[in-house]
Amino acid sequence: MSDLALRAGHPAIKERGALASLSRLSPDRLVPWLLPLILLVLWQASASLGTLPPSILPAPFDVAKAGWRLLRSGELLANALISFERALSGLLVGGSIAFILGLSNGLSRLSERVTDSTIQMVRNIPNLALIPLVILWFGIEEGAKLFLVSFGVFFPIYINTFHGIRTVDPQLVEMARSYGFKGFELFRRVILPGALPSILVGLRYALGIMWLTLIVAETIAAQSGLGYMAMSAREFMQTDVVVLAILIYALLGKLADSTVRVIERYSLAWHPAYRKGARA
Amino acid sequence: MTALATKPRSAQTRGASVSLHGITRSFGDTPVLKGIDLDVRPGDFVAIVGQSGSGKSTLLRIIAGLDQGFEGSFTVGDTASEKASSRIMYQEPRLLPWASVIENVAFGLGPVPARDHAFSRARTALEAVGLGDRGGEWPDVLSGGQKQRVALARALVSRPDLLVLDEPLGALDALTRIGMQSLLERVWQEEGFTALLVTHDVAEALTLADRVVLIENGRIALDLDIPFARPRRRGAVQFGALEDELLTTLLKSKSQTEEYII
Question: What is the ipTM of this complex?
Answer without folding.
Answer: 0.83
